[in-house]
Amino acid sequence: MTRSLSCAVALLVLCSVAQAVPVDDLLIRLGDDMVMTPLGPAPASCVHTIEDGSHIMDSDSGASVRMMDGSVWEVPACRDRAQPQPRTLSAQPDGWQAWTSFNNANNATFTSFLGQFNVPQAPSKFGDFGGILYMFTGVQNVNWVPAPPRPPAPPGFDIIQPVLQYGGGSSGGGGKYWAVASWYVTLDNSFLISQLKKVQPGDAIFGNMTKTGTDTWFVGSQIVSSKQTTNLSVTRPRLASQPWAYCTLEVYDVDCDWFPPASSPITFSNMVLGDASGSVTPKWDTHTGDNPCKTSIKVASPSEVTITF
Question: Cα(153)–Cα(179) distance, rounded to whole angstroms?
Answer without folding.
Answer: 27
